[in-house]
């Protein structure tokens, strides 16, 4: 028995694509030029579809998975097959919601499993939950990822001197609605913060659901502070302190914790999209990432729907959720001395 829910339908994929590597055999063509031509032939779906998350296994256990279906009923990879852009001209993006606001399950798209199902993060053989620390409960936004983006661990960010974290771009949706786990929503980009997580670049894109009542009033990062005073400070505080209850150090930020403006953010999204194109086009080592997809024309990792269905068919049936661990709802309090280390930094100058 499977339980499913559907996102809003906005369109359909309409283009089929050229096969990867169909470039004329001409001598004396520089290899880099051939790679450029390959990437041009890498045709990415441009239109948003309805997506249906499909659950398997038992929530709160190691075997829980969410796979994704397109409107035509085919299983797809949420990492590779859902288009980044919902409307490229208007810079409206698709976001995959991994963790609904005010919840604790550390869900993520699994980079290593074929079709990249959503699963709960695991450490030392146990599923992980984010700790509650005063005054917060769980995540303070709808948290998720931009599909078709990737932070290349071999790329050194010039402004920070740090390498990418090998993940899709992280996204914080700040609207009013609590979205469901696995929802694919359309968002408007507002700004970006740069967390330095254990020496790696970990961008956090701030955005708002296009259907939120405040979406039409928000066009850049300063509008967040104007309409939601204190929220940027809370975001900085949350990312700085959320690992402290686990006994870890305060997290560090680039740019003094400042949130960058919309145009800068879009540049970083495009950069991560181009890095993903190299990954899915096999121009760089996959580094253990499962790149199988069913819609990206030109990708050497493209598989048939039969192969995708076979992979999903291995999953256990959906069963009632297992009980939550007793400590999930515990509220932790941060030592005032630790809190003081971020107080000065939290006086943010948005948009610098």
From TrEMBL:
<dbReference type="GO" id="GO:0005737">
    <property type="term" value="C:cytoplasm"/>
</dbReference>
<keyword id="KW-0963">Cytoplasm</keyword>
<dbReference type="InterPro" id="IPR008162">
    <property type="entry name" value="Pyrophosphatase"/>
</dbReference>
<keyword id="KW-0378">Hydrolase</keyword>
<keyword id="KW-0479">Metal-binding</keyword>
<protein>
    <recommendedName>
        <fullName>Inorganic pyrophosphatase</fullName>
        <ecNumber>3.6.1.1</ecNumber>
    </recommendedName>
</protein>
<dbReference type="InterPro" id="IPR036649">
    <property type="entry name" value="Pyrophosphatase_sf"/>
</dbReference>
<dbReference type="GO" id="GO:0004427">
    <property type="term" value="F:inorganic diphosphate phosphatase activity"/>
</dbReference>
<dbReference type="Pfam" id="PF00719">
    <property type="entry name" value="Pyrophosphatase"/>
</dbReference>
<keyword id="KW-0460">Magnesium</keyword>
<dbReference type="GO" id="GO:0046872">
    <property type="term" value="F:metal ion binding"/>
</dbReference>
<comment type="similarity">
    <text>Belongs to the PPase family.</text>
</comment>
